[in-house]
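Incident review: delayed structure delivery

Summary: a single-chain prediction request sat in the queue longer than the usual turnaround. Root cause was a stuck worker, restarted by the on-call engineer. No data loss occurred. The affected request and its eventual output are reproduced below so the record is complete for anyone auditing the incident later.

Affected input:
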Amino acid sequence: MNDAVVLNSSLFVALIAVAGVHALLPTHWLSFVLVARAQRWPRTRMLKVVLLSGLGHVTTTTLVGLAAAALGKGVQKYVGNLDTPLPALILAAFGLYYLVMGWRREGHRHCAHDHAEDPIQADRVAVGALFLEMTLSPCETLIPIFFAAGSFSWTTLLLMAVLMSVVTILAMGILAFLGYTGYEKLTFPWLEHNERMVLGVLLLVLGGFGYFFH
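Output delivered after worker restart:
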């Protein structure tokens, strides 16, 4: 019972931490602020677009995450008899991978273009572009966590998806709200350039905790 509690807690903490850190990236909120300024949208309209795009983003992340969990169920079925906390090892392995990739500076590509200088587009075009930008880019750093949680019930996996969605959309909305009036003060250049290393360290720490205290 204690083993399950520790592993479950590690995965839920990892989910919240990764979703929160990932949502801080400018690609998840700054583009909305810049486009809203270019389109001369009021703050309420921008937040509606953030909510719409955020829902698209977390929906695709959930679908890919649940597919990864299904794959994880298949893997863990064959190794379930081993005296090894597989989810913890999976977290640590992906943490090491992201750490190495971050060290090699092969992380996400972020938009460096200042949308404030763009000509005003039709609102439908602007909204559609932001929605597609988020919907077609699920959060890949959450996929290992769903894969590691393959032993969980589908009810628990859906709860994880809901939790991830709430954290992500809430963070996007808060940052976009604050950034609408002063986005220059909310940029995170260090995090933007070192995202994978930060997430890698988080996953390694949580994976190690789950392994040594299982």
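Verification: The longest helix spans residues 43-79.
Action items: add queue-age alerting; document worker restart procedure.
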